[in-house]
Amino acid sequence: MEETAWIRSATRILNLKRDSNDSGTIIMAAGENRSLESLLNFDYNLTETMESLDTMEFNIFDFRTKTKNRELTSLTSLLLHKHSLYSGLHIPINKFLVFMDKITSGYNRNAAKYHHDTHAADVCQTLYYFIINGNWITLAKMDNIDICSMILAA
């Protein structure tokens, strides 16, 4: 199964020793929005959305509507893309999208009134707000694996 192979690959990467000279910085992607935009079939202003990801003005319910109820997959994908984590961690984008859609499908909106995929995306974006605005990347010397782990754990 594709997801299993991706998880094995990610586990191998996580088990690699980190370079002792690693500065902990994450290089922001520039000009990469088009390819992910087409993969996720966005029909709204992606640049505006990317700029609002690290603000408290980000509205998860508007984002849910804009992404046609794919807010968790879309948000995590945008965050990984924004920090060049697909290339930095050798994550195949198409497999990641399938992986996140599988996670999303595990949420049962009928069983849980609040803890569902929209809540997960909201928690993820809020955590991202604090990572960026609290300067956690520099303070904690976060590297690509750290930030990817936090995004997925949220």
TrEMBL record:
One of its GO terms (biological process) is signal transduction. The keyword Hydrolase applies. The lineage of its organism: Eukaryota, Sar, Alveolata, Ciliophora, Intramacronucleata. This is PDEase domain-containing protein. GO terms for molecular function: 3',5'-cyclic-nucleotide phosphodiesterase activity; metal ion binding. Residues 32-154 form the PDEase domain. The keyword GTP-binding does not apply. Keywords: Hydrolase, Metal-binding.
